[in-house]
Design brief:
The protein is mainly α and about 160 residues long. About 70% of the residues lie in helices and about 5% in strands.
């Protein structure tokens, strides 16, 4: 990440749109826009929350599958190393501890763990985004209820 010019403490940085499977949502707008009334956010935020949830479901499933892929890559690397690659690479004396370290150096294992980490980070980001959107909707509803109590006449 580029550091660039430091921001003043009162400036909230622009949030980048989130893009998944060709769709994009401007989260900066929905989290920071000053809505005049509750109508627009009540129409759009629940749909956005569900959109996020559907992608979150995918990443939870993907995370489980990629974790298994990482275990498979480790197992294949283990047997490949045991069957001669360990010596070919000049890793020294083959012990279980040395095999464990050598497994971590295998490109297939590194790639599998990178894929798993990516799915985990997307799942966490989407969980957090969903909470932020829900909190934003709740705050807008609360503000609208307060506004109505202050503005609309009380009838008994």
């Amino acid at each position: 990440m580029s550091r660039g010019k430091p921001r003043q403490s009162h400036e909230v940085p622009k949030l980048k749109a989130i893009e998944l499977e060709g769709d994009s949502v401007d989260i900066d707008y929905f989290l920071k826009h000053e809505f005049v009334d509750i109508f627009e956010p009540c129409q759009t935020l629940p749909a956005i929350i569900e959109w996020i949830n559907s992608h979150l479901q995918f990443y939870h499933q993907e995370r489980i599958a990629l974790k298994q892929d990482a275990k498979k890559a480790e197992a294949r690397a283990y047997f490949d190393l045991r069957n001669g690659i360990f010596e070919e690479r000049g890793y020294g004396k083959m012990t279980e501890a040395a095999l464990g370290h050598a497994i971590c150096l295998e490109e297939s294992v590194i790639e599998a763990h990178d894929n798993y980490a990516g799915a985990c980070s997307w799942a966490k980001r989407l969980e957090n985004l969903m909470v932020s959107m829900q909190l934003r909707l709740d705050m807008l509803r609360s503000s609208e209820a307060t506004r109505r109590k202050l503005v609309e006449p009380i009838t008994d």
